[in-house]
Design a protein that fits this description.
mainly beta, 9-stranded antiparallel sheet, disordered N terminus
Length: 114
């Protein structure tokens, strides 16, 4: 018996990443792993479509995270290796919902929702 799946059904959903955060698709060629540890520090790890780390140099991002019904927006900047980091105006509990808007070198922008 043959089974056919549409390409939409093949998209990967959120899964735990190697750094303990949720790894989410960011467009067709990138993943972001969002690590929220209950502090105001937010770390996003970049990887390619095969989950290999991608240097954050040249990338920029903005985080939008909802805490207790209030939406907080703040920038993320490249740090060492595949990391983008930022500081929220409040502590961000693990499990919070939000999105990362990622600007890729060369001009395109993608969004990852968690």
């Amino acid at each position: 018996m043959a089974v056919s799946l549409s390409s939409g059904a093949m998209a990967s959903g959120p899964e735990r990443g190697p750094n303990g955060g949720w790894k989410i698709d960011a467009g067709a060629r990138h993943h972001v792993e969002v690590v929220l540890d209950g502090t105001s520090n937010v770390v996003v790890y970049l990887s390619d479509e095969r989950s290999r780390p991608v240097a954050a140099t040249g990338f920029t991002a903005n985080a939008t995270i909802v805490v207790n019904g209030t939406t907080h927006r703040f920038p993320l900047s490249p740090a060492d290796g595949p990391r983008l980091t930022g500081t929220a105006p409040v502590a961000i509990p693990a499990g919070s919902k939000g999105a990362i808007q990622l600007s890729i070198p060369g001009g395109s922008t993608v969004r990852a929702t968690f």
